[in-house]
Amino acid sequence: MHGGSDDVPGVAEAEVVSVLPRGTCCGCRTTTDLAGALVTDARIPAEVLTIPQVADRLKVSRNTVYRLISDGDLPVVEVRGKSRVAEADLQQYIDRNTRTVA
């Protein structure tokens, strides 16, 4: 296991971020860039939710969630034929559709 940015001399924590991983480290979300420095893969969601979990959080039916996905309103990740929604994508959907009442 690695210790984060301490493994890369002279690199601050905020500098250790990339979306183009070259190789994996120890199975975590850390990879190496072209120079061999440790970087975090920002594409890996911290949490993924099942369709029933998304429906429960939105207080809607599973059919409504599937409709949001098919309409392109909610991105989905397919894992061996199972649909999953990244928690960050769900939060973005909520943020986009939140209105304030005047």
General description of the model:
Residues 1-29 have low confidence and may be disordered. 26% of the residues lie in helices and 22% in strands. It folds into 2 domains: 4-41, no CATH class; 48-96, Arc Repressor Mutant, subunit A (Orthogonal Bundle), CATH 1.10.10. It is globular, with a radius of gyration of 18 Å. Helix 1 (51-58) crosses helix 2 (62-70). By secondary structure, the chain is an alpha+beta fold. It is built from 3 helices and 7 strands; from the N terminus they run βββββααββα. It has helices at residues 51-58, 62-70, 87-96, and strands at 17-18, 23-24, 30-32, 38-41, 48-50, 77-79, 82-86.
Give the SSE map.
Elements: E1 17-18, E2 23-24, E3 30-32, E4 38-41, E5 48-50, H1 51-58, H2 62-70, E6 77-79, E7 82-86, H3 87-96
Helix pairs in contact: 1-2
List low-pLDDT spans: 1-29
Number of helices: 3
Number of strands: 7
Biggest sheet: strand arrangement: 1-4-3-2
Rg computed from alpha carbons, rounded to a whole number of angstroms = 18 Å
Give the strand content: 15-25%
| Helix-strand category | alpha+beta
Q: What is the H-and-E element order?
A: EEEEEHHEEH
CATH architecture of the largest domain: Orthogonal Bundle
What shape does the CA trace take? globular
The description of the largest β-sheet is:
4 strands, mixed
According to CATH, the fold-level topology of the largest domain is Arc Repressor Mutant, subunit A
The top-level CATH class of the largest domain is Mainly Alpha
Q: How is the quaternary structure best described?
A: single chain
Short description:
The protein has 102 residues and is α+β, with helices and mostly antiparallel strands. The protein contains three helices and seven strands. The N and C termini lie far apart (52 Å).
